[in-house]
Every structure is written in C-alpha cells, then in structure tokens.
Amino acid sequence: MYADNAQISHRQLFRQIFTGLAGIYILVIPVMPKLHGRQGILALLTGMGIYLLLCTYFVRIKTVFQYPEKYLGKFWGRCLVFFYVSWLWLMGIFLLLVIVRVTKRFLVEGSASWIILLLAGLAAYFGSHQGLERRGRMAEVCFPFLVILLGILFFLGILRMKPEYLQEMGSLSLKGWLLGTWEVVCIFLPFLFLPVTLGNVRKPGETRHIMGSSIAVLTSTLVFALVLLQGSFGPGGYEHKNYPVIDFMAGIQIPGNFLQRVDVFFVAAVVFSLLFGLGSVFFYQHELLVRVKMEKTALFAASGMMAAAILWEKMKIPTSWFFAVTIRFYGPVFVLLLILAGMKGRKKRTCAKAGALCLILSLCLTGCGVSLEDRIFPLAVSANYVDGKYQLIYGIPQLSAMTGQGKSETEGSEPQAIVYEGKTPQEAEAHFNQNQKNYLDMGHLKALILGREILHQEEALEGLLAYLEEKPSVAGNLYVFVSHDPQELMGLDGQGEESVGDYLTGILENNLEGKPKDAVSLQDLYNAWHRKEELPKLPEVTVVNKKPQIGSYS
After folding, report:
1. What is the distance between the terminal CA atoms of the chain, rounded to a whole angstrom?
2. What share of the chain is helix, strand, coil (3-state, %, to 5)?
3. Which of 7, 190, 316, 428 could be joined to 392 by an S-S link, Cβ 3.0–4.6 Å?
C-alpha cells in the first residue's frame, strides 16, 4: 500500500527527534548565559510553550517546504532553502567540533583531531543516505537503550543532590527571563525543520501531538538536568565548566563500587546522539537541496563542512560563535521566513492577497470577523466529475437535531443533497455561495466522498486535489471514501441525528469492525499525486437501511 512507501510512523518521528537532539541539548543548555537556576527553568518552560503553539503552524506550512519554488517562486524558494542550508552547514561544523572535543577529553585522550573528524563525518554522511525509513528504524531500536541509560544515570544523580543547594535557585528578573526565553527559542531552531519531513510522515495532519510530546519530553529532561546540576554543584558551581553534565556524571557512584567510570556510558550515549544529529544535518541538507533541484551541490557542501571543521579545530576556535550567530542573526531571520511561509503557503504571489490576509487579521483582532452564527459547517463533502463538470455536494447537518434542540420548521423544509456544478471546483463552490446567506467554513470537515467517475479522470482528480490543497482550513487528516452514488449518500444528512461525516468517522475509529489503520486520509492522496504514484485503495461506502455502510475497497 502507498502509505508504506518512504514514510515513517509517528513513533519513529518522535524517537528520531529525541535521539538526534537529546545529546547536544544536555551539553548546551546548562552553559547558556541566561539559563541557570529558576530563571533557566522558567525560560525553558516558556520556550516549550511557544513551540507547542507552533506545532499546528508547522503542519500548515509543510507543503511550502515540500515544494518551495511552487509556493514561493524560484527566487524566494531558493532564498528559503539557502538560509536553512547555511544554518545547517554551521550547525554541522559545530557538532563536529563538539564530537572531537568530547571524544578527546573523555573517551580517547591524545587522539588526532582530524582522524576523529574524518571518521565522524564519513559515518554520519553515509548513514544519512540510508533513507528516512532506515533512520526511523534505527532511532526506534536505539531509543529504549538511550532512555533507560539516561534515566538510570539521572536517578543515581539524585543521590548527589544537597537540599540546601536547591533552596538557592538563583535570581530571576524580567529581562533575564525574556533573554533566556529567546535563547531557548534559538537553541530549539532544529524543530523548525519538522515541516521539511512532515510530508514523509504517515498522516501528517495528526502529528501535532507527536511534535508536542517530543518538545515536552526534551524540555522536561533539560529541566531535570538543571535541577540536578543546581542541587549538586550549588549556585555558581558549574557555570564555568564546558561540559558540566559530564562532570556531574563523573561523580556518580553505583552502590557496591563495582564500576568506577559510570560517566563513560553517559559520554558514549551523548556521542551517539551527536552522531545521529550530525546525520540529520546531512539528511536535511540533501533533502532541501533536492527540492530546489540543486542536489548535486550536497556533496560539495558536506565536504566544505568537514574541511571547515578541521580548520577551525586546528585554530582552536571556541564553539560559542555558533550560538552568537544563531541568536543575533539566524533567529530573527527564521522568524521572518516562517511568517513568509505562512503568507505564501497556500496563496499565489500577489500583493492583493497579502493585503487581504492583513485585513482578515485586523478584523479578527478587532472582533469584526464572521461570527459563528453567520457560518455554516459541512462535516462531509462529496465530489464527482460528470460530463465535463465538477459536482460538489456539501453535507450540512441539522445542528439543532445534533445538539438535542429539536427540529425547526425551517430546517425540516430545507432540501438535502443539492448538487452544485461548475467547470472547476471553484466555480461549483461559487454557485453554492450564491445560494447561501452564510459563510462557508470547511474547517470542520471529517470526510471526503469521491464518486467513481472522478477517479477515472486523472486531470479532474488533480484539479480537485489542487483546489483542496489551496484551502488552509481543509485538514489533511480527514478520511476519504468512494461511493457509487454520492447524491444518495449525502442525502442522509439531516434525516437523522448524526451527520454522514460523523457516522463514517465513528465506524472507522469507534467500531471494532472498523480499521483506522486501513483508512485513507486526504494527505495520502496529496502524497500519491505529488509523487506520481498509484492512488491508495479507498473504502467504498454504500447506503443500507438508510445508513452509511463501509464495504470493500475500490
């Protein structure tokens, strides 16, 4: 089935995020200037809250990163990729330098820096070309060992804490909190690369909770690490150290003293995480260049990264330069790029539409937008293509019946399953709007029903998908079905107390006979369309005893 090709599961996405970022964050966060004591903990929690809010936004703009030139144009699309790749290039150098310095100091003393750099770079580079699925499986296998090891070591570290040190959690000021929050936002910039890979995740519209969970788990780990350091070294006791968490682990003793160098296991886990993160740098760098048809430059970029790392290591350049550049330059630039992606993501490049967006935002801020009473919310929509015209039917349930308020005379007399036709989906929607006094809000759609005829018309189906993809309110995770008679099926809306969209969703998610894993989402169709692959098989819906029934597959 299509969903199994070049895609990773939500669990694999979570484990890749944690495996690739845990090591570097554990080393970096404690040495940041504003992230000490309670001020650092508060800044971490605030930064986490910001990124939790951005998770939905990442899902919205994922198509921009899949096809940057299509949505932004050739110039701005390449500018977007250039800034992302340039930051990845600097981050790759930074990771290589950290791997060398940690390895030389804590694992293999006296080793040649260039040999470590070369081996680490080659291993990460060739490992990044194993494909997203293999990287996902690798993270899935290694994740339990990494979590168990860190959990055991952190638990043993509690024995080193002194209660009196925890009573002195440092100062807290508004300026320090704001600066610390900005540091966290900039350090968490790797999360801005999630939209790049969401197109390769099964049911990307449902990844918000996975991204949020990964951010929350990482932040919790970092907060716990700060508490351990504060409780073990006291205020001002570790800020001068380059790798305070490793020094902290060196002081842990296992009961019985049968193992002296507990920190070796921690350093090995951290170096593995750093190598996995370096592989992610190479992977995303190549992926971004492919999307602007510049993949041939990926090898040169990787070679330049390793050469620069060798040179900078020879010159003994400190790693603090990376954070200075990120906080002062790349942080603000990435904020602007995210705003640009949101504005351009599902709109054509016209000043008029940008102005319209600003107008809509201003209306929302002043409370003058379209109120809920003036909107209609279809929960299902059907689409077909007959005799050269699109046929759209909007399933608008009787809200009074669904909420237990009874059926009004007006609703009871409304005709059901009205077909709106047009040469394009936009024209059919315009005909619908001409017959309605309320604003059409498609943000609550739960099901898309396709007629058999449109499935045999490739251009017509692509036109429908393009129309839906241009609508930010239409979620990619809604279920897709096929029906021999969409008009009969959509005619069920309003005849009972439950809409067709709710009923079909309930069969898949709440009925033992339903199989959500066999369901097909709108995002699956998008992926098959853009990759020029065969469409997945759709569940077929028929009407039995005036109720929808899911039967065989198309």
Report:
1. 13
2. 65, 10, 25
3. 428
- Report residue 139 as tokens: 């993270």
297: which DSSP letter?
G
Identify the residue whose tokens are 């080659």.
122
Contact call for residues 270 and 23 (beta carbons, < 8 A)? yes
Q: Are 254 and 234 in contact (CB under 8 A)?
A: no
Kindly report the pTM of this predicted structure.
0.64
Beta bridge partners of 385: 390
Euclidean distance between CA atoms 125 and 273, whole angstroms: 15
Host H or E run for residue 79: helix 68-102
**Separation of alpha carbons 553 and 540, rounded Å:** 5
* Gap between the Cα atoms of 310 and 113, Å rounded: 8
Q: DSSP assignment of 254-284, as one string?
A: -TT---S-THHHHHHHHHHHHHHHHHHHHHH
- Report which secondary-structure segment, H or E, holds 450: strand 447-451
Q: Rounded to an integer, what distance in angstroms lies between the CA atom of residue 527 and that of residue 517?
A: 17
Neighbouring C-alpha atoms within 13 Å toward the C-beta of 149: 20
Residues 6+ apart with CB under 8 A from 246: 27, 102, 106, 263, 266, 267, 270
Torsion, CA 460, CA 466, CA 467, CA 468, rounded to 10: 110
Q: How far apart are CA 343 and CA 346, in angstroms?
A: 7
Q: What is the pLDDT of residues 14-65, one digit of tens each?
A: 999 999 999 999 999 998 988 988 899 999 999 999 999 999 888 888 888 8
What are 301-343's pLDDT values in tens digits?
899 999 999 999 999 888 889 999 999 999 999 998 888 887 7
200: nearest Cα among 293, 246, 135: 135
User: In whole angstroms, what is the distance from residue 348 CA to residue 58 CA?
Assistant: 19
Angle at 164 between CA 159 and CA 168, to 5 degrees: 120
DSSP letter for 437, please.
Answer: S
Amino acid identity of residue 298, one-letter, is A
Tokens matching residue 500? 């067709």
Count other C-beta atoms under 10 Å from residue 267's C-beta: 20
257 φ/ψ sector (left φ>0, alpha ψ -120 to 50, else beta): left
